[in-house]
Amino acid sequence: MSSESTVLFAYITTPHIEEARTLGRHLVDKKLAGCVNIIPAVESIYPWEGKIEQGPEVLLIAKTVPSLKEALTEEVLHQHSYDCPCILFFEADAGNLGYIEWLRENLAQPEV
Predict the structure, then answer these.
(1) 41, 25, 7, 39: which is closest to 76 by C-alpha?
(2) Which segments of the chain are extended strands (E)?
(3) From CA 51, how far away is CA 106, in angstroms rounded?
(4) Is residue 17 part of a domain?
(5) CB count, 10 Å around CB of 106?
(6) Residue 16 near residue 112 (C-beta atoms within 8 A)
(7) Which of 60, 95, 98, 104 has minimal CB crowding within 10 Å?
(8) Looking at the 3D structure of the chain, how many domains does it have?
């Protein structure tokens, strides 16, 4: 996939569905994500403040492009309720070019 057609998946966990919906809508409204998928029931196990925690979370997958990665990260950090939210990026190595074009049309355009 060329850099022009590269799509990133931002993998973000939230504590509950309301926050995932609010954050997802915010990212799409700001054109930092062209589409957001919300997966309402994931179970997370992780160390936090000296203890192993386990509990439900909601997974948000935001589709974006490399040029918006930093802005999306900053916006999530600003809006998220966690002290240290999970924000990870994965690159798609292939895909429907029509969908990728549609996605890019719905994202903030780089300043020239």
Answers:
(1) 25
(2) 7-14, 35-48, 51-64, 87-92
(3) 42
(4) yes
(5) 12
(6) no
(7) 98
(8) 1
Q: In what order do the strands lie in the sheet with 51-64?
A: 35-48, 51-64, 7-14, 87-92
- Specify if 80 maps to a domain: yes
Q: What are the tens digits of pLDDT across the range 41-96?
A: 999 999 999 999 999 999 999 999 999 999 999 999 999 999 999 999 999 988 99
Instruction: Answer whether 10's CB lies under 8 Å from 89's CB.
Output: yes
Cα 7 from Cα 104, distance rounded (Å): 9
Gap between the Cα atoms of 100 and 16, Å rounded: 29
Condensed to tens digits (0 to 9), the pLDDT of residues 13-49 reads 999 999 999 999 999 999 999 999 999 999 999 999 9
89, burial (CB in 10 Å: exposed 0-12, middle 13-18, buried 19+): middle
CATH number, position 70: 3.30.70.120
